[in-house]
Amino acid sequence: MTQSTSQSRYPLIKDEKGQVLAQFLTKDWLSALTETVNGHDGFKSAIANVDLTLQFEITDAPEGTESRYYVSVGDGAAQAVAGDAEDPDATITNDYETATTISKGDLNTQMAFMTGKLKVTGNMAKLMMNQAMLTQFAEAASGLDVEY
Q1: CA distance 96 to 144
Q2: Would the CA dihedral through 46, 52, 58, 59 be positive or negative?
Q3: Model pTM?
Q4: What CATH number labels 2-147?
Q5: Residue 41: exposure state from Cβ atoms within 10 A (0-12, 13-18, ≥19)
Q6: Is 111 helix (H, G, I), strand (E, B) or coil?
Q7: What SS3 string covers 19-37?
Q8: What is the reported pLDDT for 1?
Q9: What sign does the dihedral 133-75-56-122 (CA atoms) show?
């Protein structure tokens, strides 16, 4: 793998074929995540009438990455943004190891929650009502090339 710089403050990492990989938990990753999920047909269908904002907190995120970000879904689109949401419906907190394991698809969020590796606060009913959208989000995000 090689690294090159872009206009962002994070290096772009390229694989042996020259494809850009998004470094996990960076602003480039958040941008790539936004683009990827919004281009996924199943996710687009699942968010037709959804209005949901999820705040994510990674307790031990590596230096140079985003330890706090949110995903806002509304008006038929999603956006992943660094920082704090103004009024999130729910906050999801976990450590970096759990975040990467979930992102890689090696652990699902339900199992992480049931085993205490992932904590959720806020409007649990709204979160549960949007389970189909969350499933499609995970499926869409799995198509993202990520460097950990």
Answers
A1: 18
A2: negative
A3: 0.85
A4: 3.30.1050.10
A5: exposed
A6: helix
A7: CEEEECCCHHHHHHHHHHH
A8: 43
A9: negative
Residues 60, 95 contacting (CB under 8 angstroms): yes
pLDDT at residue 7, rounded to an integer: 41
pLDDT (0 to 100) of residue 13: 54
Taking Cα atoms as reference points, which of 46, 66, 65 lies closest to residue 55? Answer: 66
Could you tell me the CA-to-CA distances from 127 to 43, 52, 55, 94, 134 in Å, in that order? 16, 8, 12, 17, 8
Quick: pLDDT tens for 56-82.
999 999 999 999 999 999 999 999 999
- Smallest Cα–Cα separation from 91: which of 72, 65, 131, 119? 119
Alpha helices in 1-148 (DSSP H): 27-38, 41-46, 96-103, 109-114, 124-129, 131-141
What tokens does 67 get?
Answer: 């330890």
Structure tokens at 124: 């649990």
- Distance in angstroms (rounded) separating the CA atoms of residues 132 and 96: 25
- At 145 the pLDDT is 86
Torsion angle of C-alpha atoms 91, 97, 100, 103, degrees rounded to 10: -50
β-pair type (90-94, 52-58) = parallel
